[in-house]
Structure formats: structure tokens, C-alpha cells
Amino acid sequence: MKLLGTMSVKNDELHIGGVSCLDLAKSYQTPLYVFDEQLLRQNCRDYVNYFKVNERKNRVAYAGKAFLPLYMCQLIKEEGLYLDVVSGGELYTAHKAEFPMERVLFHGNNKTIDEIQMGLDLGVGRFVVDNYYELDLLEAFCKQRGRKQAIYLRITPGIEAHTHDYIKTGQIDSKFGFTLTNGDLYECLSVFSRYEHLELVGLHAHIGSQIFDVEPFLDEVDIMMNLVKELDEKYQIKIREVDLGGGVGVYYTENDHPKTIEQFCEAILSKVDSSCQRLGIEVPTLVIEPGRSIVANAGSTLYTVGSTKDIKDIRTYVSVDGGMTDNIRPSLYQARYECAIVNKMRSGDQKQVTIAGKCCESGDILITDVDILGIASGDILIIASTGAYGYSMSSNYNKIPKAPVVFVHDEKCRLVCRRQTLEELLALEVL
Ligand SMILES: Cc1ncc(COP(=O)(O)O)c(C=O)c1O
Ligand SMILES: N[C@@H](CCCC[NH3+])C(=O)O
């Protein structure tokens, strides 16, 4: 397993943020999500620095869907980021964490009436409008309130990025946004003046997630800048802000070769400059929405090893005390991860095993066929890079309580989410 961030090995034992993983497992029990706060903050700072947030007034909006406990809202507020939310629940979290609402972008392809009203009442900075249904509702509610709302239109740019089918979003056959290539967007613009209470300040696109190549993003830049010019010339609409979405790929295993945040930002910014120069337009304020590339590598999950099943000449299953309830990504996207035993961080003879979860599903496998050093019941296993879409996509399937989240930094721990209790599991149920 590759050591990421502040991971270090002392006496064959893995530490994160200077804290022993064995001690963490003892103090908080397993399964347990552990976040390396230094790495997480460094990723935020790299984005702020290399995306030229201060110099060019660009904006980095953290995609809350990746992982959004209250403390994350506080942390990204401190780091000067904006926040992308996609539901009333995420919006409420931001509100409770006293995140500045003018820095919130509200996404979603089917915001409910209640969510739209909540967004307006709380004063979110930008609605990223996905369709006519939302435009009509927003216009009506703004009219009732006698106020205007700044919006972006979500564009489907027609870009096929190379990633898993379920996490592609830029292609024409997508549920998101106004399609560019079939004329949907132009139809919307031609009637836009009827939305008197909506101020169209920006365009948004998001081409997908876990994308390593920079080329699809550069194509996206070209498409968006062309649109900025076209909207001005044909519709006299001045676009001041262009949001390029998220999607930057990260390291999960040695097969992944991601760009650094610096390389990615530099490629985007220089493409924006050359594109705007070619078109003879002003460089707009740029927004990006990284989720995974801020939190994925900062998070890991600790498990206790339980039963083992050795099927001669076929496979050895090693089961842990978590699984698809705390990390659905292997079952959903065939996602691969690296792992290690936290108290056996040395080289030696390895054996191939399959790490299984404890759910009542054959598909509840965390890692298929991984080479690992003599694993035994009671060992503490770490799966690395579970920080994005692990906790946020966790479930109570099989009535398994949600695992806690602890942040480690400078030899100190901070409990960010406690473990769900059995009583809390039943809290919604009525007899
Ligand atoms: C609109 C939008 N913005 C940002 C993101 C964040 O993507 P990622 O976590 O891949 O950076 C997503 C998720 O794919 C998204 O749908
Ligand atoms: N949840 C997905 C990514 C989709 C992001 C939302 N558009 C993942 O775990 O990779």
C-alpha cells in the first residue's frame, strides 16, 4: 500500500497524523473512518493557490457530495472555498455550520419545491439551474418574493470522458442540464427574457468524475468560452462566471496516474487564457468544483478482521466488520483500493486473499484478489483512499450502524461523527 499524506511507519506499525492506527481502532472501535487533516487542508490550499483564487478572483467550490459533515463545512470555510450542494440536506448542513450562504452553489436536476424555497430563503449565492421546470419555479418564487436570483445554466457539452459509465455526465445521453449539441440550450436562451427575476450570470458544465486525462477538460474550456462569446453576440447576455465542474481523478491503486492539483490547474488556466485570447473575449471568473481530489486520499477506513474461508485452489475470503454499508464503491463501480494490516507494515511473504464485507450479499466484496502479508482474525486492516463517497454513500443496509469519523492531526484526534447507536437505528420507526 502506498503511504499517502502523513502516513508513516514506526516499528512496523502504521500511523496517520502521528497517531497509531492500532490506538485509533482501540479508542473508537472499528469500522472507523480516519481523515488526515493536514493532507485535506493541503489539497484545499493547493487548489486555492494554483487556481489563482486570490490573484484572479477565481473560485474553488468544494463538492459536498463527496463528504460533508458539519466539520467539513467549517474547514472549507476556513480555507476560503465555496461549496457546491445538491440537496436540502446538504444545504441545511451548510446552514447549521454557519457557512456563508453567498458562497453556496445549489445544484440538482430535480430540486423539489421545498428545496428551491429553502435555497431562496437561506440566500444561496447561485442556483445552478438544470431545466425548464426549475426555471419556471424559481421565477415564480422570486416574483412572489419581489427579488432577483443569480443563476448559472447547466450545459451538457457533449463530451465523452473516459471513466466509469455511471459517473460520466458530459455526454448527450445524460439526465443533467441543457444539451448544447441538439439545440436545447439555444431554445432556452431564445425565451430567457421571460424570466424577469432571474439573472443569468454564469454557465456550468461537469463532464464526469475520476477523469485522469486533462484533454476532456481542455475541450470543455473551449466549448464554454465559445459559448460565452456566442451568448454575448447573439443574445446580448454577458456571462461573467464559468463553472467547469469537478471530476479530477485521484490515486486509488498503482494503476492510477493522476495529475497533481498544480498540473491540472495550470493546464486549465493556460487553456482558458489562450481560448479567450483567440476569441477576443475577457477572461471570466472561473469556478471549479473538486470533491474527490480534495478528500479521497485524506480518508482511510480501519476494519477488524474476523472470519476466513479458504476454498482450496479457488480463493480465500477474509471477512471484515464493515463492507458495502461503509463503502459501496467496489460493488457499484468495481472500484479498486489498496490495503494493509496496520500492525504488519513490513515486507515478507504475501498471500492472495479477497477482502469481503459482512453484508448478506455475495457482491459485498471490498477488494478482490489482493496480495497481503499473513492476515489473521483480530488484525486491523486499513483500506486507503476511502475519503470520497465512502461516508457520504454509506447506508444502514442489514441494519448496520454508520461508522464514526475521526480527524487526526499533529498527534491529536477529533471525533467528527460519532458511531450511530442501535437506538438511533430505530429512531425513525413507529410501532
Ligand atoms: C456537478 C458536479 N460538480 C462536482 C462534482 C464533484 O466531482 P469529483 O468528486 O469527481 O471532483 C460532481 C460529481 O461528480 C458533480 O456532479
Ligand atoms: N459517487 C461517485 C461519483 C459520482 C459523483 C457525483 N456526480 C463515486 O464514488 O465515484
TrEMBL record:
Keywords of this entry: Amino-acid biosynthesis, Decarboxylase, Lyase, Lysine biosynthesis, Pyridoxal phosphate
Biological pathway: Amino-acid biosynthesis; L-lysine biosynthesis via DAP pathway; L-lysine from DL-2,6-diaminopimelate: step 1/1
Orn/DAP/Arg decarboxylase 2 N-terminal domain mapped to chain residues: 42-296
Residues involved in substrate binding: R292, R329, Y333, E361, Y389
PTM annotation (N6-(pyridoxal phosphate)lysine): residues: K65
Enzyme class (EC, first level): lyase
Top-level taxon of the source organism: Bacteria
Reaction(s) the record says it catalyses: meso-2,6-diaminopimelate + H(+) = L-lysine + CO2
Cofactors named for this entry: pyridoxal 5'-phosphate
Family: Belongs to the Orn/Lys/Arg decarboxylase class-II family. LysA subfamily.
Subunit comment: Homodimer.
This protein's name: Diaminopimelate decarboxylase
Organism, as annotated: Turicibacter faecis
